[in-house]
Design brief:
Blueprint lengths: L2 E5 L4 E6 L4 H10 L6 E5 L5 H12 L3 E5 L2 E5 L6 E2 L1 H4 L9 H8 L1 E5 L12 H9 L3 E5 L2 E5 L7 E3 L8 H11 L5 E5 L5 H12 L3 E3 L5 E5 L8 E3 L4 H14 E7 L7 H9 L3 E4 L3 E5 L8 E3 L11 H8 L5 E5 L8 H8 L3 E5 L2 E5 L8 E3 L3 H13 L3 E5 L2 H4 L5 H7 L3 E5 L3
Helix pairs in contact: 1-2, 1-7, 4-6, 5-6, 6-7, 8-10, 8-12, 10-12, 11-12
This protein binds uridine-diphosphate-2(N-acetylglucosaminyl) butyric acid.
């Protein structure tokens, strides 16, 4: 297992290129199963989660080729069974259910288990499939969906914690090949859902309203091949914005869509940092320690849960008391105990972290627990005194393309120790 060593205290400056979005690329790659024809997807990030998805497509019978950031998939014939051995590595594998159901009218995919950020049920995905006419059973740890006929329906998709991103994706991917009109009410509005809808429309689907709470899908008989470029990763971008705030002088992010970064930019501005944007860049100017904030995670366009841990790292050094409330995954606070090992003063009250800013963090050996928590520990390490040793960095490699190289380019003193 690799480790990352961060020697804290270096100032960051310069320019960093942001990669394609993981959370767009994964469902878009799954959507290539909807056609027999070739699909070409550009700006696909080089991440372990993407490798897992390509393995699943390969297992299902698709021909997959990858040349740097471009992936070509041709799924002339597909099987419909994705077993535990290949699905267990990544929760997002559940998003092959929708396209397989749409194309083959059946699918068996191992049911994703819980994960460290919370319970993560898929009841809303399954209710959506049922509304389209599928019979859904969970047998021996597998979800089996079967629908001799798929018929459009009005589907309310909101649960206890609001809308669901992959649930919206999954139902949309099944409904594009259903008979008649489907309306998803309470749809997720995230940019990644819009990106998937744009790709589906390039394949010949008729999807309207993506990016709003109501998506309307007119079913078509079949889809054809298409070429698409994945949007920039707004969470990778947000993470580098926080890195710049933690210890930057001036850091410029290139290849971003600033309109996707509004809530993160606003939070950083409220904390006292200067943010400047052009059409495809964002520049963050570090300005000493942040002022304290009250922050709450929400569905898009609110502040993203995927940026919560990184903000906790930043606010650990704020002047005064901050509160960070997690409304999407109420238990997503595994980073807190590790940040405390670095000297942060944080208490948890239910789903709120109360952060009393300290003057200094100190480097320590810490354990990465999930993707965003690991990123938070690297960010804290950039500002800590001494060396922070982040263990289990395979979590980071699931969602950040070469984060150590990119930070090093900006001036960080960061090393990867391989295979320890
Ligand atoms: N939920 C249900 N029932 C469902 C589905 C979701 O109750 O059937 C609940 C979840 O438990 C959670 C809330 O609804 O409380 C939102 O979950 P959502 O379904 O939107 O999450 P997801 O689609 O499984 C995606 C991202 C996550 C990101 C969330 C929220 C991908 C591959 N994953 O997950 O990304 O945190 O949306 O924005 O798109 C990450 O990248 O680190 C990551 C975890």
């Amino acid at each position: 297992m690799d480790k990352i060593l961060v020697h804290g205290g270096k100032k960051l400056s310069g320019t960093v290129n942001i990669s394609g979005s993981k959370n767009s690329a994964l469902p878009i790659l799954a959507a290539t199963l909807l056609t027999k024809e070739e699909c070409v997807i550009h700006h696909v990030p080089d991440l372990s989660d993407v490798h897992y998805m390509l393995q699943i497509l390969d297992h299902l019978g698709a021909q997959v080729e990858r040349a740097s950031g471009t992936v070509t998939v041709k799924a002339e014939k597909v099987t419909t069974d994705a077993p535990y051995e290949i699905v267990r590595k990544m929760r997002a594998s559940v998003c092959v259910l929708g396209p397989l159901l749409g194309r083959e009218r059946e699918a068996t995919v191992s049911m994703p288990g819980g994960c460290v950020i919370g319970d993560r049920p898929i009841d809303l995905h399954l209710k959506g499939f049922e509304a389209l006419g599928a019979a859904v059973r969970v047998v021996g740890g597998d979800v089996k969906v079967l629908a001799p006929q798929l018929k459009g329906a009005v589907i309310p998709m909101t649960g206890k914690f609001g809308s669901t991103v992959l649930g919206t994706d999954n139902v949309m991917m099944a409904a594009v090949l259903a008979e008649g009109t489907t309306v998803i009410d309470g749809a997720a509005e995230e940019p990644e859902v819009v990106d998937l809808a744009n790709f589906l429309n390039k394949m010949g689907a008729k999807v309207e309203g993506a990016g709003t709470r109501r998506i309307i899908i007119e079913g078509v008989k079949e889809l054809h091949g298409a070429e698409h470029e994945v949007i920039p990763d707004r969470i990778e971008a947000g993470t580098f914005m926080v890195a710049a705030a933690i210890c930057g002088t001036e850091v410029r992010l290139r290849r971003v869509q600033p309109e996707h970064l509004g809530s993160v930019a606003q939070a950083l501005e409220r904390a006292g940092f200067r943010i400047e944007t052009t059409k495809t860049t964002v520049t963050v100017t570090g300005n000493g320690d942040p002022t304290s904030l009250e922050l709450t995670t929400e569905t898009y366009p609110g502040f993203p849960t995927d940026m919560q841990a990184q903000m906790c790292a930043l606010l650990s050094r704020a002047k005064g008391i901050s509160t960070v409330t997690e409304n999407i995954f109420p238990q997503r606070f595994m980073h807190v105990s590790e940040l405390k090992r670095m000297g942060a003063n944080i208490t948890l009250e239910n789903n709120t972290a109360i952060i009393n800013g300290v003057n200094a963090l100190s480097g320590a050996p810490v354990m990465a627990s999930d993707l965003r928590a690991s990123a938070a520990l690297v960010l804290a390490g950039l500002r800590a005194e001494g060396v922070t040793e982040v263990n289990r960095v395979y979590h980071i490699d699931r969602g950040y393309e070469k984060i150590d190289d990119k930070l090093r380019q900006l001036g960080a003193n960061i090393q990867r120790l391989e295979g320890l």
